[in-house]
Design brief:
4 strands, 27% helix
Length: 108
């Protein structure tokens, strides 16, 4: 049989999507790993903040937003997840999940 051989292309990453959807996806993945996630909302923008409790004494805070963080508050966030275009100091949510898997592997 001399038919065409089909190869599947990898699915492209979603670079622009809804903040709510990214928050749901990321929090679901982290809860599946066995960590508690607390979600809080910004009073001024659409930003979401995830507090992930690693141990009783340690937690990390992750910011999901479509704009830069204030210079005064940047030190509070371990990761800044971008929703649209790349900006300095921000990561894609897939990059964050890969980095968190490494952090989780170190802590357990």
């Amino acid at each position: 049989m001399n038919g065409k051989i089909f190869t599947h292309e990898p699915r492209p990453r979603v670079l622009k999507t809804n903040i709510k959807k990214i928050t749901q996806h990321v929090s679901k993945r982290i809860v599946e790993m066995g960590y508690d996630v607390y979600i809080s909302h910004s009073n001024k923008s659409k930003s979401r903040y995830l507090e992930i409790k690693l141990t009783e004494a340690r937690k990390i805070v992750v910011r999901i937003s479509d704009h830069h963080a204030d210079k005064l508050n940047r030190w509070r966030y371990k990761f800044d997840i971008r929703v649209t275009a790349a900006r300095p100091g921000s990561v894609d949510y897939i990059e964050f999940l890969d980095a968190f898997k490494q952090i989780a592997g170190e802590k357990k």
